[in-house]
Amino acid sequence: MNTLAFQLSVSFIKENDQFVAFSPALDLSTAGKTLEEAKKHFTEAAQLFFEELKESGNTEEVLSGLGWAKKNDSFIPPMIVSQQIESIRIPAF
User: Fold this and answer.
1) Which of 27, 35, 65, 70 has a Cα-to-Cα distance from 50 of 20 to 30 A?
2) pLDDT at 31
3) For residue 37, is it within any domain?
4) How far is CA 6 from CA 19, 32, 40, 80, 90, in A?
5) 71 lies in a domain?
6) Which domain holds residue 60?
7) Please, which domain of life does this record's source organism belong to (predicted)?
8) Domain total in the chain
9) What is the pTM of this model?
């Protein structure tokens, strides 16, 4: 089986007793009880995402909609260029 390799930005967030893994490049998230479990679950979910994408036959449409660029016969995922904490004001609860 032929495979491709990508480097994706993945954020890991601790929420209560869970670790959440999220990648904007795939609009995909998963969770685990530990950071390692969240990483493992994310890898599995990403593999399933691409398997389903290949089977559906609309790879270019879906990846383009997620901000991926096509160069020659390859797809390049969008890159996070900045991540920071922003202060916002919201109505009081």
Assistant:
1) 35
2) 98
3) yes
4) 23, 22, 16, 14, 38
5) yes
6) 11-76
7) Bacteria
8) 1
9) 0.84
* Residues 75 and 69 sit within 8 Å (Cβ to Cβ): yes
**In-domain check, residue 62:** yes
Report, in angstroms and rounded to the nearest whole number, the Rg of the chain calculated over CA atoms. 16
pLDDT tens digits for range 51-76? 999 999 999 999 999 999 999 988 99
Establish if 3 belongs to a structural domain. no
The pLDDT, as a whole number, for residue 19 is 99
**CA torsion angle for 67, 23, 43, 21 (degrees, to 10)?**
-170
DSSP 2-15: ---------EEEEE
The encoded tokens of residue 81 equal 């260029």
Answer for the pair 19, 13: CB distance below 8 angstroms, yes or no: yes
Average pLDDT per run of 10 along the chain, which is 93 residues long? 85 97 98 98 97 95 96 91 93 93
Read off the tokens for 20. 């959440």
pLDDT of residue 4: 81
